[in-house]
Design brief:
6 helices; 0% strand
């Protein structure tokens, strides 16, 4: 487990939230779309309801794929954290799973900022071999 892999978790969570928000916005806007009666009404873009359904389906597939990636990544991170001491594991959890800044981690763990970053370096060396 390396730092680059650890850093992928929070952005992946944010990506899922963004995709879900996009899906919700489309569903909310769906109320303003009139269903097609199948009759031609001039030059249009086709069936707007059908186009929206396709977009929602695509978003759901993207969300599911991202969730699967997140679950697998979380398993890998948790396995690495479980191999650490409780304090070291807590430090890594706060940073990489909760997305806290080092300053926040230091305050919450009652450590100096420099000490937290130094411990982090030692932890990374420990888990790189996993």
């Amino acid at each position: 487990m390396d730092k680059q892999t650890l850093r992928q978790y929070i952005p992946l969570c944010k990506e899922i939230e963004s995709l879900q928000a996009e899906k919700e916005a489309i569903l909310k806007d769906l109320g303003g779309v009139k269903p097609s009666d199948g009759m031609p009404h001039g030059t249009g873009t086709g069936d707007p309801t059908g186009n929206i359904a396709v977009k929602i389906n695509e978003l759901e597939q993207m969300i599911n794929e991202s969730i699967n990636k997140r679950v697998e990544l979380r398993r890998m991170i948790e396995a690495a954290i479980d191999s650490l001491s409780p304090k070291d594991g807590l430090l890594m959890r706060k940073r990489y799973l909760e997305g806290k800044k080092w300053e926040q981690v230091a305050v919450e763990m009652n450590y100096d900022y420099r000490h937290v970053t130094k411990i982090h370096g030692f932890i990374l060396k420990k888990i790189e071999s996993l």
